[in-house]
Amino acid sequence: MADEPTLGEVVRRFEDRLTDVRDDIQQLGTRIDKKVSQDVYDLRHEALTARVATLEATRERDAERLVATRRWLVGAVVVPLIGVLLPVIIMLAGGTG
Predict the structure, then answer these.
(1) Which UniProt keywords apply (predicted)?
(2) How much helix, strand and coil, in percent to the nearest 5, is found in the chain?
């Protein structure tokens, strides 16, 4: 009989456990409040997907613009320069021989 708890001890232990359970439920509620809802997650994911698509399209346009600039540089500067210098080089090489 000495090992058995008294009624007061049983009530105290029960209240302690009840307090622990309430604290656990409160912590779970706090965690759930911090969690993002599926709708918000989906909206953010769609916005991020749209942003990535826009950035990829911009990168492709920039790459096309770079290719066009290189073509313009070759067509407008290098080819006429060779057209002017090549006859001079041929004349100088032919005149010295």
Answers:
(1) Membrane, Transmembrane, Transmembrane helix
(2) 90, 0, 10
